[in-house]
Structure formats: C-alpha cells, structure tokens
Amino acid sequence: MSQSGVLKRSTILVHGSVGMPLAVIGYPLVVYLPPFYAQEVGLNMALMALVLVIARMSDVITDPLIGTLSDRWQTRLGRRKPWLLMGMPLMLLGTVMIFMPPEGAGIGHLLVWTVIMYLGWTMVTLPYGAWGAELSPAYHQRSRVTAAREGFVLVGLFLAALAPAIVQRLGAKFQAGETDGAVMQFAVWLLGSDGQLSIGYGPILAAMAWMLLILLPLTVLLVVTTVKEAPPKSVQRTDWRKGLRVLKNNGPFKRMMLILLIVVTGESFRNALSVFSCSTLFRFRPISA
Question: Which of 23, 108, 217, 230 has the fewest CB within 10 Å, making it most exposed?
Fold first, then answer.
C-alpha cells in the first residue's frame, strides 16, 4: 500500500479470493443439508430444524467474543491472520463431518459438528471482514476491496450452483450402466459409497465438502502469506450502554437493519424450502440419463 492508501490490484484480488469458498458453503447448508438428513439419513424434520436453529444461535455468544478478541489480541502475525488460521481447520472439520457423516450418525452428531463448523466460520469471517475494512484508509480503495470480495462471492455461488448438476449427471450415467472411464472412476472414488454413485443428495454434499477442502486452505494461506495487515490504531472505547443509545438514535442504521432482516428472512425461507417445493409441489425429479 502506498502512503496515499492506494492498494495494488493483486492485493485486492488475493484478499477478495477468500470470499469464494465462504460463498460455496452457503448453498448446501440451507438447500441440500435438510433434505439429505431428512430423506437419506432418516432424521425427524422438525427435530433437525430445531437442532440447526440451536447451532446457529451459538453465534449470539461467539460473534461478539471473537470480534472483541480479534480487535484486542495482537500477535507477531497481526490481529486478524491468526483467527483465519485457527478457524479454517475447525470449519473444514465441521463441514466434512456434517456433509459426509459416518454410518449411524444421529441428531447429536449433527448438533455437535454444526456448532463446531459455525465456530470456525465465525473465526474466519469476522476477522476477515474487519481486515478488509482496515486495508486502506481511503474510501474508494475500501470500495474496491469490497467489490473484489463480492465478485469472488459470485464466483463461489456459481460453482455451488453448477456442481450439483455435474454430480447428478455423473450419477445418472453411472446408474444407467456407464461405469467405465477415468472421470467416472474418480467420481465414484471421491463422491460415491460402497463403489456406487447415486443421484441423491449425499454425492452433492460430498462434492461441496471437497470443493471447500481445496479452496479454503488455498485462499486463506495465500492471503495470510501475501497480504499485510494495517498497523493497529488506538481508538477510544465506548461503554456498551452508550453504544446502545447511539444505535437507538441512529435512524439510517435502524432502517438498514430492518431491510437486512427482511431480506435475510426471505432468503432463508426460499433456500430452505426450494428443494422440497421442487420435489413435492412441482414434481421435479433428479436428472436422468
């Protein structure tokens, strides 16, 4: 970064690349995980939904805790980088355990590993977002940082939408008897079970897990080793009571939060119900050969 706060394009792109794997995991969590555990694992839908809500509510504790520690804990690596390095394995381990559960996994397995996955998610995403806001003091440079990150998020969403179609197509070919070829054998080894490749939700979630196992370490290690953190600045700490009063009197902030709540609520309903709507209401079925 120059003295004027102008960032190199490579710095902006490398930092933004972490947004890609973080976007990949969003789709399967809300779209494919519920029908997988309900229809293929055999868990009660209402109980499973309650477990997912409980796991998500753990953020009420971990979000402010990780945010505060990330702000105050200064290391030789910086304030933000250690959290990405510590949170990444937790997030990957939790993802693998809920996307590719062992035989006999039940509701307790889903709860424990989902909480661990969300803990790792918080340890990565909160410091990562704060790091981006600190890369430059210049307003337009921060806009470029955000735009690059959101660009990679779109790439991640595209990959997350494309992967299920590819996996389902391979599964349909395998079911039709097309079991030869290096690509098919590799897909069976990577995504199948007991030498079989089905067209259910299991192979889709396995593909998403492998995608995250590759992309998240690659991008996190790249940004940690090549992008410098901005030096910490001394700021005046505000008492939490005073902070609440400031938020209460901030009209634009309250309107923004209301809009965000409406958008996220609508997205949550749509994502959670899309697979069930397509399979039961519209009678869509997995693609066939």
Answer: 108
Residue 2 belongs to a domain: no
Residue 4 counted as domain residue: no
Nearest partner of 121 among 99, 152, 96, 89, judged by Cα: 89
Among candidate residues 166, 187, 170, 193, the one with its CA nearest the CA of residue 101 = 193
Find where tokens 């889903």 sit: 110
* pLDDT at 192 exceeding the cut of 90: no
Q: How many domains does the chain have?
A: 2
CB 113 within 8 A of CB 94: yes
Determine the straight-line distance between the first and last CA of the chain, rounded to whole angstroms: 53
Three-state SS for 200?
Answer: coil
Are 103 and 223 in the same domain?
yes
Query: Which pLDDT does position 280 carry in this prediction?
Result: 65
254 plus 198 within the same structural domain: no
Mean pLDDT over the full length of the chain: 86
How far are the Cα atoms of 35, 47, 76, 188 from residue 50, in angstroms, in the given order?
Answer: 14, 5, 41, 33
Name the residue range of residue 178's domain: 9-228
Tokens of 27: 């789709």
Q: Are 168 and 131 within one domain?
A: yes
